[in-house]
Amino acid sequence: MKIGIDIDGVxxxxxxxxKTYGDLYDFIELNKDGxxxxxxxxxxxxxxxxxxxxMNFVNKxxxxxxxxxxxxxxxxDVINMLQKEGNELIIISARxxxxxxxxxxxxxxxNEEGLSFDKYYWKQEDKLEVAQQENIDVMIDDSYDVCKxxxxxxxxxxxxxxxxxxxxxxxxxVKEVSxxxxxxxxxMEEIKKL
Length: 194
Prior knowledge:
By secondary structure, the chain is of the alpha/beta class. It contains 8 helices and 6 strands. A 6-stranded parallel beta sheet has the order 3-2-1-4-5-6, with helices on both faces. Strand 2 (88-92), helix 5 and strand 3 (119-121) form a beta-alpha-beta unit. Helix 3 (51-68) packs parallel to helix 5 (101-113). It is globular and about 55 Å long. The N and C termini lie close together (9 Å). The relative contact order is 0.17.
């Protein structure tokens, strides 16, 4: 099976780290209560920051926080099992688009953890084209927008949803999960259908 995998919020717990330090930056450094949408995935839509405030946060924290972000529990074990079982794992990530070094930080983290993948697609804001080009059987992502778009185009998606994020109605193309055990169970059920 060909499995597309996002990095942030799926393999690395970066989204939770980013929200934590975004809230601290907003409250302590900006002395604001700037959260306008707690359920929003992207910083630009989560806070009422000016572009200058947002870029100050990005420049001050993105690399630093990325370097100390841990793996999501179970990610390494399940990724290793999926590889041993002969699945092709392809990274499809927006990382490196805003700050090139973010890609290198992820590669370093993967090397430290002994993780490798069959292919890497970086700087992918719109993941549909790559998913179609690679003929992905299932994509694992934590973005509502990405999962919605892929599923509407008949690509099976595993929506790794944080409890605060928007819900997507589950159907034959969308499965909502909250941990890597659920991901493994779903993929094994899909493989049985092939």
